[in-house]
Each structure stands twice: as C-alpha cells, then as structure tokens.
Amino acid sequence: MARLNPVFVCASCGGETLKWQGQCPLCGEWNSLAERHAPRGRTGPAAAAVSLVPGAALGGGERLGSGQSELDRVLGGGVVPGSVILLGGDPGIGKSTLLLQVAAHVAAARPVVYASGEESVAQVGLRAARLGLGAEGLGVVAETDCQSILALAAARQAALLIVDSIQTLQSSAMPAGAGAVTQLRECTAELVRFAKQGSAAVIIVGHVTKEGAIAGPKLLEHLVDTVLYFESEAGSRYRIVRATKNRFGAVNELGFFAMTGTGLKEVKNPAAIFLARAPQPAAGSIVTVTRDGGRPLLIELQALVDRMRFGAPRRIAQGLDANRVAMLLAVINRHAGLALQEHDVFVNVVGGIQIAETAWDLPVVLALASSLKDAALPAHLVAFGELGLTGEVRPVPWGDERLREAQAQGFKVALVPRDNAPRKAPSGMVVHAVGTVAEALAAAFTRAPPG
Ligand code: TYD
Ligand code: MG
Fold this sequence. Notes:
The chain is about 25% helix and about 25% strand. It contains 9 helices and 21 strands. β10 and β11 form a beta hairpin. The mean pLDDT is about 90. Magnesium ion (MG) binds near residues 95, 96, 118 and 164.
C-alpha cells in the first residue's frame, strides 16, 4: 500500500494545494480547502509501453453507431470505445430523451447500462414505453453512488455506460461533507478511469449553469474526451448538438434534431429550418448562407437602424460579434457614404443561432442600408461575402456550395464576392459579382428585381 500524502482540495473551484490555508490561492474562496489523501512516491513495477507501429492492433475496436446519424457526425463518426463524452444542456431540452434513444439502439447489439440519478426506473420505463424503445441488453438503474454504478457496468460488461446526471452522483471515496465541486470532479475522474481501463464508452449528462458552462468551473471539460452542447432557441422544437471539444473528430460540425411527440427525430436536411420569413419583404431583412457548422444553412439576418435619442449611439448584436458590426459601420461610413454615427444600430440573427464566420459581413451591411433607407430588399435575394477595411468585398470559402443550396431553396438572385462568382450560375439563378461595398449597395438597391 502506497503511503498517503495530504493534499488540500478547494470545494469551490476544485483546485489543489499542498498546504492548508484559510483562503484558496486559486479562486480566493475562504475556508473551502479540505484534506484529501493522495498516494506518494510510489515505486511499484514499471509501466509497460506498447510500440506504436503503423497498422498495430491496439485494441479499442470500432466506433459504436448511436443510431442517430446527426449525433454520429458531430462525434466524428460514432462513439469511440473507451472514450468519455460530456453532454451539456439546459434542463428539459431533451438530453435524457436523446440518450435513452441512443442506449436502446446500442443495446440491440451490445450491453448498455443507463444509470439515472434524477428519475426512477419506473419513470425511465414510462418514457421508453412512450417512445417504443426497449432491448434485452439495456440495463436501467436508479442509483447515485458512483462505485455501485461502475461495479454494475463492469459486471454487465457494458459497452456503453450512460450517467444522467453527473450532478446527482456521489463518490464514497470522498469524505462525507466534501463540497459539490470536489464530488463532481472525483466522480468524473472515476468514470474516466473506468472508461480508459476497459473499453466501455461513457456518456455523462451535465447540467448547464446560468453562465452557460457545464457545472460552473470548466473543471469537467478538460477531464473528458468530447464535450457536446445541446442547444435550442426558446419555444423552438429544433435542437442543435455542437461539439466544443473533440479528441476524435472536428469541432465545427452541428447536428440537428426536432423534438416530436415520439422523441427526437433527426433533421437530415436542415438548410432552411431557420428560415421563417414574413410573406412580404421587409426593410432591414436579408437571407444569407452560412457554412458555420459543416454544411450550408440559410439564415435570416435583421438590422434596425434608429435615430439616436440621447447619449452615445448603441450597437447591439445578437448571434454575431458586436465588435465586427462596429467595424462594418466604419467601413460603410468611409467607403459607401452611409453615416450611422447618430443612429442606434441593432443586428439580430433569426432563430437564435450564433454565426462565427465573416461571410455575413456583406449581408449585414445590406440589411443596415435597407433599414436606413427603409427600402426592402428583393425577397428572392441572398448574399454572402467578407468586407475588408478598404471597402473591398473578399471571397469566402465554399462559395459554390452556398450558391447551390440557395438555389435549391428557391432563391433567384445572389450577391457574391467577385472571386466567388461561378463560371456558370446555378440554373434559374442570377449571380451578381461585386468587388466593393459601394458596388454591392448599388447592385442591391438600384437594380430592379428580375421578374
Ligand atoms: P428530457 O429528455 O427529460 O430533457 P433533459 O433530460 O434535457 O432535462 O426532455 C424533456 C422534454 O421533452 C419535456 O418537456 C417533454 C419533451 N418530450 C417531447 O416533446 N417528446 C417526447 O417524446 C419526450 C420523451 C419528451
Ligand atoms: Mg434529464
């Protein structure tokens, strides 16, 4: 047995120090340090290394399909055996529903343990019955003790262990009265150890705090392999799964689901789900094609420009970076003669989605000009392009793909950067290629919409 060396763990931030202090040196919380024993100076047998040569069989096996291709694409092709996935999201968004669907799918072929600390077995059973789910290999347990859950998963040789949720878990390795954060971290570490020692994959549900991070301090995110967030706009039936960390795949993919009366259904072609425009074109509104999230999405942007009443002009942006909007205002002031210094400016991405790419520069400027002039843009117009500080319209990646998707959704006119102009426009579509912001504004507001 290795000798134990005390360390002091902060119940507030989970940080460790070697000596006791009244105040945690990391987060500044008072009286939050509690003693925990860690093994010291172990001189056990040396660890064994495995030579890594191309084609070596290192175990691990194939990825598990979750039964939801939208989830698999976000994960980078399915669940990696031995990996730990943290799924975060607001209460009621559908985390338990999604994971029950995944559990039942995987359980058709491999043993699965679904441990719920929030619902009774009867409640989980009711939901499963409502969704028409069930499989011999799916073991459901209502349990909050981490060690008991791990023992059960080991006994059933589970290929997948689902823990709903990490906030309800307790580790008996921790002294009674250990702070919530310490428990959270210890339980997560035990689940990670379990996954890495065997080949079971573990999916952990984590509640999101008001600040939007999983379980307050980001201390769980670095322990796990993959962090997924389940998001939705209030009142919408659509759900988006986004990876913010993934050791086994890209992080920019989005997965789309719709909540229905019988569980979550994949949305395989989400291009237009955020498009719900008024039948009459309105001033300040424009549609753009974003490719943030791995595939083209048509999104409506809205701008409202209003004469400032008092004080400093306001610049408010929902769903996109307000600093970039401020930069665009300077560009159109200097290079297109649109002065908005004495106006409040509001920009909004409809559907509550966040856009983090520069292709919306041009459509935002067009929406601002449309609101300022109180002149609606043609309903069948779509635009994308980046703006430079000298007023030039710069190309963006995936130009052809964006145009094809817009055409598929029935848009007839596109305003695009000159360097994105296709050799041949998609059939039934007129493509205007522009080189400067002034040209773009002239094209959008002086050309009669083609009939
Ligand atoms: P749930 O999976 O319990 O959310 P979470 O685990 O993230 O807290 O989802 C609960 C919501 O989903 C609840 O408001 C009811 C709704 N729902 C449906 O609309 N259809 C369904 O088939 C199911 C099971 C739930
Ligand atoms: Mg739940």
